[in-house]
Write a structure and sequence with these properties.
The protein is mostly beta strands. The chain is 11% helix and 45% strand. The protein contains one helix and 15 strands. It has a 15-stranded antiparallel beta sheet that branches. Strand 2 and strand 3 form a beta hairpin. It is elongated, with a radius of gyration of 38 Å.
């Protein structure tokens, strides 16, 4: 059973890990090394529970990623991973051991271009996008709360929002003029007749109410 400060070595006496133990459980900072002697990880424990910010490194010494734990030993906070060239590889967020209900989950290619993007609201994935290595989006889905299903967004033929709106041609009856736009001469005759009748009725009512 390990107690106190413990160092572990491989067959070639290269250090593999170093930390403090209580009853065989790590307590406090713990470091690990790669076979080539480069630092592999910096971890923290509290009586065997994973706590604090953990950092991991490539055998080259470049930073590989970081993630965090709360005092209960659950993943909590941001988790970021990198390619060996230093470009971000992925990003996610956790809350008490579970992925956060409101977050963005992101993945990149090694050249830094986007590969995957997912948006979550109240734990539900409401939008997801995927790109190929040429930078073209080949999948885009959006959650429709009304139908409770996902719909595809077509990026193959984007809409031209700069083109002005042109009203459709008028398809009603021919015009009062010879070139034709709206109405016809037969309609105009009925409109004039109705107008004259109303005018005559108005005059009769006015005459009847005049004092004798």
């Amino acid at each position: 059973m390990r107690n106190g400060r413990v160092q572990e070595f491989d067959d070639h006496q290269i250090p593999r890990s170093e930390g403090f133990y209580i009853n065989d459980k790590p307590d406090g900072p713990l470091r690990e090394w790669h076979n080539n002697g480069q630092l592999k990880a910096e971890k923290f424990y509290n009586k065997g529970k994973q706590v604090g910010t953990w950092k991991e490194y490539f055998p080259s010494g470049n930073w590989e990623g970081t993630h965090m734990y709360n005092t209960e030993g659950h993943l909590h906070g941001q988790a970021i991973w990198y390619y060996e060239n230093g470009q971000k590889k992925s990003f996610d967020e956790y809350e008490n051991g579970l992925t956060k209900p409101d977050r963005q989950s992101l993945v990149w290619y090694a050249d830094g271009s986007p590969e995957y993007e997912a948006t979550y609201r109240a734990g539900r994935q409401v939008e997801v996008k995927r790109w190929n290595q040429d930078g073209k989006i080949y999948e885009h889905k959006v959650y429709d709360a009304e139908t409770q299903s996902y719909r595809e967004v077509d990026h193959s033929a984007p809409a031209d929002t700069t083109r002005p709106y042109v009203s459709p041609p008028y398809t009603g009856p021919t015009d009062f003029t010879d070139d034709g736009i709206r109405g016809n001469w037969q309609d105009l005759k009925y409109y004039l007749f109705g107008f004259m009748v109303l005018l005559l009725l108005g005059y009769l009512f006015w005459w009847m109410w005049q004092p004798l």
